[in-house]
Design goal:
Length: 164
């Protein structure tokens, strides 16, 4: 799958809106992810409101680049009515990687900005979005048409593979 080897963090975006069909395509990819016991603990908030994006970009030291994005997707996880709630963040990580790979496939660029598992960050994003009880922010994913490009670093290191 070529997108695995093309995906890079994109933090600069063209001043150009993203078509709703492309947003749906990346969300479909996220929801195609496997999850523990198929519990699908996710909800996705799609933010285009400039004031809210500005607030999200100030959540921590490394979220500033979100301010330049036309869209920020916030993958969220439920903690209620789940078979194994303690696995929900792992489920969201898989869904977020799917979302990132499909972003690349759509000719867009984005970057995963870490929120969970850091409690102070989760609380800050939950408050900005006004999330209901039992639903929490997992990550910020600003995306848009890229205004930067570079090849992915080659991380293949055969010495990290251990055959027994
Ligand atoms: C869990 C996670 C959290 C991350 N958090 C941030 C972040 O807060 N801000 C940011 O600019 N990049 C963030 N990144 C992007 C990483 O810095 C990036 O993936 C890494 O440097 C490798 O570069 P690449 O994505 O271009 O291959 C995060 C990536 C992951 C997987």
């Amino acid at each position: 799958m070529k997108e695995i080897f093309e995906r890079v963090s994109i933090r600069k975006y063209q001043d150009r809106p993203v078509e709703p069909e492309k947003i749906e395509a990346v969300l479909r990819a996220a929801m195609a992810a496997p999850s523990t016991g198929n519990q699908q603990p996710w909800e996705f908030y799609v933010i285009t409101d400039r004031d809210m994006i500005e607030k999200l970009s100030r959540v921590h030291l490394y979220s500033g680049a979100a301010a330049g994005a036309p869209v920020v997707i916030v993958p969220c996880y439920r903690t209620k009515d789940l078979w194994v709630p303690e696995w929900a963040q792992i489920d969201l990580a898989i869904a977020t990687e799917n979302l990132w790979l499909e972003t690349t496939a759509q000719g867009l660029g984005g970057v995963w900005m870490g929120i969970a598992p850091q409690e102070d960050r989760i609380e800050a994003v939950d408050a900005i979005l006004g999330l209901p009880e039992g639903l929490h922010a997992f990550a910020l994913f600003p995306l848009g048409y890229p205004a930067e490009s570079r090849p992915q670093e080659d991380r293949w290191d055969p010495s990290r593979v251990h055959y027994i």
